[in-house]
Amino acid sequence: IAKLLLQMKIIHPYIHTQGKSWYGPFVAKYIMDEYKGHVLCHHVSGYCLGDAPTYSWFYDRLMYYHGLVYEYGYLTFGKPEHYAANITLDYFLLATVFGFMFLTVALTYPFLQKAEKTDAAAKKTKSQ
Fold first, then answer.
1. Cα separation of 109 and 122, whole Å?
2. What would the DSSP string read from start to end of the chain?
3. 10 Å Cβ neighbour count for 21?
4. pLDDT, tens digit (0-9, with 9 covering 90-100), for 82-115
5. Which of 26, 22, 25 is nearest to 11 (CA)?
6. Residue 47: left if φ>0, alpha if ψ -120 to 50, beta else—which one?
7. Is this prediction's pTM over 0.70?
8. What digits encode the pLDDT tens for the residues 57-69?
9. What is the rounded end-to-end Cα distance, in angstroms, of the chain?
């Protein structure tokens, strides 16, 4: 809930009124530029909603190609194929969110574990 409040009450109004990333130039350049991703992409084309760096590249591309399916006429809004494809896509996106979450944990866990060992060693040293 705190993340949602921060995004909707502080970050969202800021990026619309200031025309730049709330997080600053380093984060915007190397990790996530929510101004480009949200204002310049989402409000223009409707995709670019992924807000996690390990997931947004996948989500954004998937939404782009999903739009092309409609643009080229393979799917038409309101037909049964449209509903079937979108329900399938929604469940696929849900599954991939968990997949990328596990991937993120797997990639960061060794560093977290190392930090915990370092903290425990520092506390042990102080107590002696």
1. 20
2. -HHHHIIIIIIHHHHHHHSS-SS-HHHHHHT--HIIIIIIIIHHHS-----SHHHHHHHHHHHHHHHHHHHTTSS-TTSHHHHHHHHHHHHHHHHHHHHHHHHHHHHHHHHHHHHHHHHHHHHHHHH-
3. 23
4. 999 988 988 888 788 788 778 777 877 777 666 5
5. 22
6. beta
7. no
8. 777 788 788 888 8
9. 42
> The tokens of 100 are what?
């990328």
Instruction: Find tokens 């992409």 and name the residue.
Output: 41
Determine the distance from the C-alpha atom of residue 35 to the mean position of all C-alpha atoms in its chain, rounded to a whole number: 13
Please give the Cα distance from 83 to 94 (Å, whole number): 17
Report yes or no: 51 and 67 within 8 Å, Cβ to Cβ.
no
Burial (0-12, 13-18, 19+ Cβ within 10 Å), 63 = buried
